[in-house]
Each structure stands twice: as structure tokens, then as C-alpha cells.
Amino acid sequence: MTIIIQVDRLLKTYGDFKAVNEISFNVQKGEIFGFLGPNGAGKTTTIKMLTTLTRPTAGKVTLDGHDPAVNPNEARHSFGIVFQDQSLDDELTAWENMEYHGMLYAVPKPLRHQRIEELLKFVELWDRKNDFVKTFSGGMKRRLEIARGLLHHPTILFLDEPTLGLDPQTRNHIWNYVCRLSKEEGMTIFFTTHYMQEAEDNADRIAIMDHGVIVAQDTVEKLMQNTQTENLEAAFLKLTGNELREENSNHTDNMRMRRRAWTGRR
Amino acid sequence: MNAIYVMWMRQLKRYLRSKARIVGSMAQPLLFLVALGFGFGPIYAKAGGGNYIQFLTPGIIGMSIMFLAIFTGVDMIWDREFGFLKETLVAPVPRSQLVFGRMLGGATVATGQGIIVLLLSMVAGFRPVSIWQLPFAVMVMFLIALLFTAFGTAIGSVMEDMHGFQLITNFLVMPMFFLSGALFPLDNLPTFVRYVAACDPLFYGVDAMRSFLIGVAHMNVGLDIAILATISFALLGIGSWLFSRIEL
Question: A106–B94: do the CB atoms touch at under 8 Å?
């Protein structure tokens, strides 16, 4: 097994606040690695540092042999990313968004056009390919975003909450595709999600982050064994503590709270 | 090279598709030309200045190019806001290519607009001194456009939201316009004002355009172009550097 992502005592501070507090972990080549944590745990900041968007305060990252802080250009050749929030150009068509992405990532034209057709059909946007993205619904934009991220078959694919807001069928559909790509091409997948079932079903290994530190990392089975729980959701709650953070309570947190109240009553 | 082409093409498409933006950015120079040209024309002639439309047109072309160029540069704030900036920043291409393509796209659009304003001004009565000098005038337009797109991009790289935009318009763009000699000759102004005007890149742009369009200028046109080119290169460098340092 070769290590493809190596993170060593990675630190990011904003003033006094330690968003990411000296975390270390490794990801193996071809692995599907889940990166979980409550809102504000520091997941997105970590991904930003791995993908050259933010410079770390301290610590070292190696991505397919390159340090994103030292050789950002080389590191960018190794990965692709589907962002948590929108990153499409609204005033271009779906096809143009795909085409320009493929050109930026230097996918040769015949292969590029073949994959664009395949992917747009896969996310059921082929018949809308010449429509402007600004006319798309939230779910359609999300699907296009994922299709675009899969276009250039990178060595490492970062998926930051890729399936947020999609219906269960579409989520399954997309995960099947991603897992197949990972198997066929040895692609490493690094993802975050709020859907615990998704992580339980797809991840080879999981790291759980909270308050800027990694509180546990292991396979799903080991995590459940160590916490003496029956599913990942319960293990997650046990590891990240039971008190709900009022300051950034949002939809997902509310869902979690309601679920806890429900299971407590039984 | 792909990156330069993609970013250039994108700027062009975005401009051409936004009909409201095109009409809006055409209306302003036209309004200035008609209102000021016909309004101040008689006074200007009485003062012995000759035909005001002839004097005004190169200035209005310069103005319209500057406004659009700065605006397309600062437009990057929206890409930051709507996320497209991230998509380009993680792409495996040098950031210098991304920013250069973007600047080139903005400059192309602004030059195109300058040419259209020139044609429209001919309808309003402007007569260029010689057809053969027009290509040189267009070259100057492109230089002005490149300079101010780079300027706008530099601003857009450090500004994080749209709040500062009014400030830039009122304290940078409008003064540069008024001090450029686009509307009135600067000859008889206080020495102090002329020194300040000497720091205004648009002053050299308008002067160089007058030289090619109406055959009259304050300075040597070669010097004008040399100064424009120098400032452009400097701003291209600064803009690229600031862009390469963007963190999200």
C-alpha cells in the first residue's frame, strides 16, 4: 500500500482561534476515506489547505508527493474537487461549464467530449446541456457540479458534502458511480458528508473531526467496536459528545437532536 | 495556453450575452457625447477652441474604455461571491495564465466597445483626421483597455466584497476621468492640477488617441504610448501577483 495523502501536525489559526489544531492522518492510494464531523469542526478548512486554496499556519501536507503550500501547481495536477457550495458559472451553459473545465484540466478533445456526453446523461442533464446554469434548480446545479468534478479522472478526488440536498436515489446512483471509478482507476476518494449511512456504506476508513482535532480514525467496524455502538451514527455521537452546540445549530444539528430525543424516548 | 483561451472566451461570452450590460455601457458615453457635445459646443467654438465634438470624442472613447475595463476587472468579486473563482484557482494551470486570460478578455471587450463608440460618434458628426491612422487609434484603445483591466483586476484581487466599489468609483475612477483632459483642455489650469493630471494614465491615453484621431496632441505620441505601455506592464505584474496570492 502506498500513502497518497500524508498530513503531519497541520495547523490553521485565525487570530486566537485554532480552526485546525495539529491534525495528522494518512490516506492510502485507492482508498475511499470519509472525513466526518459536526459543523464548524474544521473539515472544510482542512480541505482548503489540502487543495491549495488556503495556506496552513504550520504543519506539512504531502499530496501524491507534492506539498500544496510549496508546489501548488504540481499538487493541483493530482486532484479534483467537488465543492460544498456552488462553483459553476451561472452565465454559461451546462455544456460550456463542462467543456471549460475539461480544457483547464487538459483532457484531450475526443475523450473530453465523450465523457461530457456520458456524464451529462448520467446526471440526467443531457437534454438541458445548452441551457444556462442560472435557469437550473438547486438539485440540477448540484448534479452538474458532481458531473464536472468527475470529468478529468484525477488521482485524488475531494468531495465536500457532494450529495447535500439530493434525493436518496440520486445519492445512491452517484455513489455507485464514484465507487466504480475508484475501483477501476485506483482513484482515491476523500469525502465529507452529513449522511452517516452514506459514510457507513462507502468509506473504507473514517476520520472523525471535532473542535479542530481528529478524535478517532479507523474502519467503520473498529469505530463501532471501540465505542460499543451498533451503527456509525451512534459512534459518531458518542465520539463528538452529546451536547449540542447552540451557537451554530442548523438543520442537520436539529435533525440530530430530534433523532436523539426520539431514540431516548424508546 | 488553454487557460488563457478559456478565461478570455468566458469574458467575451459573458459580455455578449448580457444585453442589458451592453446597452447600459453604450448609453453612458453616448449621453455624454450628445449632451456635452451639443451643449458646450457653441461655447467652446465661441472661446476659439474650434469644433467641440472633434475634441470631445477621443476623450469619451477613453472614458468608456476605462469604465468598462475597470468594471470587468472588479467583476472578479462576483466570481468570488458565486464560487467560480474557486473552480479556476484549483485547476492545474499557472495562476498567471488564468489572470492573463481574464485581463485579455476584459481588454478585448473594452476595446470592442471603444470601436463601437467611435463609430457611433461618427454618426453624431465626428470626423477622424485620416482613415489610415485608425488602426493606430485602436491599438491605443487596446493599451488603455489592458491597463485599466489590469488595474481593476488588482483591485478585485484584494477586495472581498462589493462595498468598496462606490469608494473606487468616486475617489479613483471619476477623478481620473476629469483629470484626463477628456472633457476640457488642461492647458490653462493651475500648475498643481496639471501635476496631478500627469499621474493620470488616462491623460496619456486620451492624448495619444487625439493624436491619431484628430491630429492634435499635447505631447509626443511616442512618449504617450511608452508611458501607457510601461504602466500597463507594471499593473499586469501587480495584478498577477495579487491574484496569485488570493486565499479563499
Answer: no
Mutation pick from B18, B87, B96 vs chain A, by most beta carbons of A within 10 Å, is: B87
Q: How many CB pairs under 8 A join A and B?
A: 69
Domain with A17, as residue range(s), is 3-78+154-219
Q: Confirm whether A250 is domain-assigned.
A: no
pLDDT tens track for A144-169 = 999 999 999 999 999 998 888 888 88
How is chain B split into domains, by residue range? 2-244
Residues of A with CB below 8 A from B94's CB?
A: 73
The model's confidence at residue B99, banded by pLDDT at 50, 70 and 90, is very high
Burial of B78 (0-12, 13-18, 19+ CB in 10 A): middle
> Structural domain tally of chain A?
1
CATH of the domain at A64: 3.40.50.300
Subunit contact A88:B87, Cβ cutoff 8 A: yes
List CB contacts of B93: < 8 A, sequence separation 6 or more: A73, A76, A104, B2, B3
Residue whose grid cell is 480552526? A19
Mean pLDDT of chain B: 90
For the record, the C-alpha cell of B174 comes out as 471619476
Residues 6+ apart with CB under 8 A from A150: A80, A119, A157, A177, A178, A181
Does residue B202 or residue B217 have the better pLDDT?
Answer: B202
Residue bearing cell 489572470: B99
Could you give the ipTM of this predicted complex? Answer: 0.86
For residue A246, the model assigns a pLDDT of: 42
Report the chain A residue with the minimal C-alpha distance to residue B95: A73
Residue of B nearest to A107 (CA): B2
The verdict on residue A131 lying in a domain is no
Q: C-alpha cell of A264?
A: 431516548
Q: With respect to residue A213, please indicate whether it lies within any of the assigned structural domains.
A: yes
Choose among B171, B168, B235: nearest CA to B201.
B235
Encode pLDDT of B43-71 as tens digits.
Answer: 888 888 788 999 999 999 999 999 999 98
Q: Say if A265 falls within a structural domain.
A: no
State the best of A64, A86, A89, A141 to mutate against chain B, taking most chain B CBs within 10 Å: A89
Antiparallel, parallel or unpaired: β A17-28 and A3-14: antiparallel
pLDDT along chain A (266 residues), means of 10: 90 91 92 90 91 92 91 90 91 95 94 95 93 92 92 92 87 90 92 87 91 89 85 83 50 53 46
Report the number of secondary-structure helices (H) and strands (E) in chain B. 12, 0
Residue A207 in contact with residue A36, Cβ under 8 Å? yes
A73:B92 CB<8 A = yes
